[in-house]
Amino acid sequence: MKKLVIVLNLVCMFALGSFAQSMYGDAAKADVKMKYVYSFEEALKRAKEEHKLIFFNCFADWAIPCHSMNKLVFSDQEFADWMDKHFVNFFIDVTSREGRPLAEKYRIRFQAHYLVLDENGQIVHRIVGGYQIPEFKAILEKALNPKTSFAGMNKRYEAGERSVKFLSDYADILSVADQDGEVYAKIIEELFNKLKKKEWSKKEYWKFFTRQLKSVNDEMFKYMVENKADFVKSNGAEKVDRIIAGLYFQEIYPYASGKKAYDGEELLNIYLDMQKAGITENHHVYPLYEIARYRGEGQFDKMMDVFEHKLDSLPEQTLVALDLTLPEIKELDKKEQERVVTYLKQRAETSGAKKFYLAAINDMVNTDGIKFEESSFEEALKKAKDQGKLLFMDCYTTWCGPCKMMSNQVFKQKFIGDFFNQNLVSLKMDMEKGEGIDLQKKFDVNAFPTMFLLNGDGNIIYKILGGRDPRAFMEAIQRGMKQSTPYYILKSKYETGDRSVKLMADYFQTMSDAGELKNVDGEVKSYLATLKAPESYSVSAWALYDNFVNRVSDAEFKFLVNNRKEFAKQVGDSTVDKKIERVVFPVVIDYLKGAVSKESMDQVWKLVNSVQFSPEYSLTLLHKIISMYDKKEYDKMLDFYEKTVTSNQDAKVRLNLDVILHRLVKNASSEHKARAIAYAKKSMENAKPGAQGSYKALIEALSE
Q: Which residue range or ranges hold the Thioredoxin domain (predicted)?
C-alpha cells in the first residue's frame, strides 16, 4: 500500500484556488452524495445521540486517491445511503489548520485514509488506501462487528487467540490499516511459524507471503525462485512472474531514474538473475534495464530510443514518474535536450498528467524562477556569507508530492525568482542522496519539504515545514527575513524561560511555520489566558489573536470581539474588523452548506451584533442578507444586492458577498436564479480583472 501511495505522490501537486473546491479544478469535481458533518465535536455529539460509529474521511486535497474515492465511491447514492444508515459521516481536510490536530492525534500519514471511531473518538477501524465499492463496503462491515473490527481483533489477540485462521484474518485487518510495523511483522511471523515451508506456496497465504518480500535478497524470495513451480501451480504463472519481475523492477528503477549512482556490474548481475528466474524478454522490466544502462553510460540517444519505442507496456503512473526524471539529467547537450523536450511534449498530449509534463518542460526551458546553486552545502553557505545574504535551503525527497509541487509550481514563479535571485543564495538538497543524508541529521529534518533560511555561520534563521501556495510561501519567507529575533535565538530564549509577550508572539508564529508545535492553537490560547491588561491588548498580543484565534466558538474570539475598541486603539479599526470578518464569514458558508445549525448561527450573530459596526461593514450587510435568506425572501434579498451591495465602495466586500449568491438562491425559483445570474453578469462587467475569474465561477454555479 505504501508503495502505491508513494508512486501516486510522485505525480501529485497542490495549489490553492480562489473559488474551486479543489486545487485540481474541474478535473477533481465529483457529485459526492455523502451526508457529512464538518465539525468533529458535532460528529461526536451525533454519534452519542444516534448510537452510531463515526466514519471519518481524512481528506487531503493534494492526494489524487482522495479525489478518486470521491468519484468512484462517495458519489454512489446507494452506497451513500448505506453509509448514512450505519455511520455518522464526518469530513475534514486534514491538511487545513482545523484538520492538522486530528491528523497528528490519529497519526494520518498516507492518503487516502479513513477511520471508524466510537462515540468517544477512539479508533475502531483504520483503512488506508482506495478501494472499489464492494471491497470498501466489506471492510466497513467488519468495522461494524466488534469481533472483526481493528479494535476487536486487537483485543482477541491480546486475549491469546492464535489459530491459523485468526492470524490470517488479523493480518488482513492490519494490512487494510497499513500497519506494516512490529505488530504486523509479529503476526506474520507467528502465522508462517505455524506453517510448513511447503505450505508457503498455497493460494490462501499468497498475499501474506508476497507482503513479506521486500527485496531480491530476502530468503523467502530466494525460496520462491528456487521452488517457482510450486508457487506457479497454486497461484498461476502470471502472478508469480509479476511479483518476481516487480522486485527486480524495484532494484533497477533507482538506476533508471538517476536516483542511484550507476553501477554497471551490479546492473549486469541483476540482468543475469532475471534470466535465471525465468523472466521472459517481453516483460517491461527489460526496457527499464536498458534505460538504466544507457542513462548510466551517457548513451542518451539510445536511452531515448527506449523511451520512445519500448515502454508501451509500462504502467502509466510509473511511466509518468520516470518521464519526469528526464529534466534532471544535467549532462544532455543542446540536441539531446531538444529531443527530450519534444518527447515530453508528445507525452503531454496523450497522458492524463499533462500539466505535470508542461511543468517538466518548463523546468528545462524556463529560467524565470529561483536559480539554485549547483554546489555543495559548504560552498553555497560561503557564497551567502561572502555576499551578506541568507542561504535558502530546500530539503526534499524525490517521492514527496508537495516537494514536487514546490519545485514545479512555486519556485518557478517569476515574482518569486526575482525576489530570491536578488536577495538570497538558494540550494536544493535531496535528503536521501549524497551529503543530504548528513544534512538531514544535522538539521533534524523529519518531514518534507522542510525549508531553511540560514545565516553565513549555518545557524537557522527561519524554518518552514510543508508546501505552500506561492503567496503563502513568500509571506513565510518574508516573515523569516524581517523577524528581529531568529529561530535559533528564539528557541534559546524560550528554553531559558523568557515568556514576554513580544518574544512569544514571534515564538509561536516561528514554531508554527517550523511545524514544531503539535497543538499550537491550544498553546497560544493557554498563554493568552496568562496575560493581563495592558499586555492583553498590546500589538504583540494582537499578533497572537490575529494568527491563531480562528473559531467563533473560542473564548478568545469572544474576548477579541468584546474588547474590539481596545485592540483598535493599538492596530486600527480596519485591522480588527477584517479579522472578525475572516473568522465569521466561513461559519456563514458552513451554515449555507447545512453544516452549522440555525441555533449556532444565531449565537454568532448575537456576538457580532453586540458591537456597533458601521452600516457598510461586511458582516452588518451579511447579517441582513442571511435574515432574508432564512425567511426565503428572495425578491427582497435580490433587491438588497442590486441596490445596497452593488453600491458599497469596497470592492472586496462586494466580491465576498457576491460569491455566496449561488448558495443563497440554491432553493429559489428559476426566475430568482435568472435574476441572480443577470446581477452576477453585470457585477462582472464592473469588476477588476483579478475578480473576473470568481464571477465566471459564480455564474457557472448559478447556471447548474
A: 14-145, 347-482
Domains (ranges, CATH) in the chain?
2-144 (3.40.30.10)
- The CA angle 547-552-558, to the nearest 5 degrees, is 85
Crossing angle of helices 520-528 and 539-548, rounded to 10°: 150
Contact in structure between 513 and 462 (CB atoms under 8 Å): yes
Q: Is the pLDDT assigned to residue 634 strictly greater than 80?
A: yes
Count Cβ neighbours within 10 Å for each residue of 257-284 and write b for 16 or more, e otherwise.
bbbbeeeeeebeebbeebeebebeeebb
pLDDT in tens, 504-538: 999 999 999 999 998 899 999 999 999 999 999 99
**pLDDT of amino acid 29:** 57
The predicted structure's pLDDT at residue 467 = 94
Count of beta carbons in the 10 Å neighbourhood of residue 130: 24
- Asked whether residue 200 carries a pLDDT value surpassing 80, the answer given is yes
Q: Percent helix, strand, coil in the chain (nearest 5)? A: 60, 10, 30
Q: CA 392 to CA 389: how far, in whole Å?
A: 9
Query: Angle at Cα 389 formed by Cα 388 and Cα 395, nearest 5°?
Result: 145
pLDDT at 101: 93
**If we measure between CA atoms, which residue out of 128, 109, 108, 126 comes closest to residue 117?**
126
Question: What's the pLDDT at 393?
Answer: 98
Q: Are 57 and 91 in contact (CB under 8 A)?
A: yes
Between CA 617 and CA 126 the distance in angstroms is: 46
What amino acid is encoded at 166 in this protein?
A: F
The CA-atom distances, in angstroms, between 604 and each of 204, 582, 591, 661 are: 58, 13, 11, 20
Pick the closest to residue 474 from 531, 417, 554, 405 (CA basis): 417
Q: At 251, list the grid cell.
A: 532494484
Q: How far apart are CA 609 and CA 619, in angstroms?
A: 9
CB atoms closer than 10 angstroms to residue 50: 11
Q: Which CA distances in Å does 212 have to 150, 167, 180, 205?
A: 21, 15, 10, 11
Query: CB count, 10 Å around CB of 468?
Result: 23
Residues with Cβ < 8 Å from 391, sequence gap 6 or more? 380, 381, 383, 384, 424, 425, 426, 427, 452, 453, 454, 455, 456
What is the grid cell recorded at 432? Answer: 536521501
Q: How far is CA 426 from the centre of its chain?
A: 25
CA atoms within 13 A on the CB side of 181: 4
3-state secondary structure of 27: helix
Q: Which residues are within 8 A (CB) of 59 and not within 5 positions of it... i.e. 6 or more apart?
A: 66, 91, 92, 93, 94
> What is the percent of the chain where pLDDT is above 90?
78
For residue 211, the model assigns a pLDDT of: 82
Mean pLDDT for 251-265 is 94
Whether the link from the prior residue into 472 is cis, omega within 30° of 0, is no
Q: pLDDT digit string (tens) for 369-409?
A: 899 998 999 999 999 999 999 999 999 998 898 998 898 88
3-state secondary structure of 124: strand
Question: What pLDDT is attached to residue 344?
Answer: 95
Three-state SS annotation for 425-459: EEEEEECCCCCHHHHHHHCCCCCCCEEEEECCCCC
- Find the mean pLDDT for residues 81-101: 93
Burial of 169-178, coded b for 16+ CB within 10 Å and e otherwise, reads bbbbbbbbbb
pLDDT digits (tens, 9 = 90+) for 638-682: 999 999 999 999 999 999 999 999 999 999 999 999 999 999 999
Residue 349 phi, psi (nearest 5): -80, -20
Name the DSSP letter for residue 109.
-
CB neighbourhood size of 681 (10 A):
14
Half-sphere exposure of 567 (CA within 13 A, CB side): 25
Q: Residue 586: helix, strand or coil by DSSP?
A: helix
